[in-house]
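Posted in: Protein Modeling Q&A

I'm a second-year student putting together a small comparison for a lab meeting, and my supervisor asked me to include a predicted structure for 3-dehydroquinate dehydratase. I've never done this before, so apologies if this is the wrong subforum. The sequence is pasted below exactly as I got it from our records. If anyone can share the structure token output, I'd also love a short note on what stands out.
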Amino acid sequence: MKLLILNGPNLNLLGTRETSIYGSQDFNSFFEELKSQFPEVELDYYQSNVEGEIITKLQEAGFTYDGILLNAGAYTHTSIGIGDAIKAITAPVVEVHISNTFSRETFRHQSFISPHARGVIIGFGLQSYTLAIQSFL
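Accepted answer (user: helix_wrangler)
Welcome! Here is the predicted structure, written out as tokens:
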């Protein structure tokens, strides 16, 4: 099984950004843990702060991967284009969020991704990614 983890804006700052919300572990070290935990899964990782690059990556991976774990960060709440890209591809997408977006600002309660995602995992810290991988197995 081949899965892509696709992270959006500011997630490259995990471990240093708002640690009370996102924790103190950086994503690269967590990604290594995921690869060790799921040796039967071919995991790839891509992060971008640019909306168009995320759309391009969805289009590239969306016909060759078995699934995509997408944490689009703030673009979740603003990007119709990312939602449209998910509709256009064949790979199932699981929307992932580290924090509970419903316990935060009201604008974070809307997602342009959720209507097109296979499922949504919200609020379990970095373990949200673990749960998303398990959903594909």
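A couple of things worth pointing out for your meeting: The chain has a mean pLDDT of 92. The domain at 2-136 is CATH 3.40.50.9100 (Rossmann fold).
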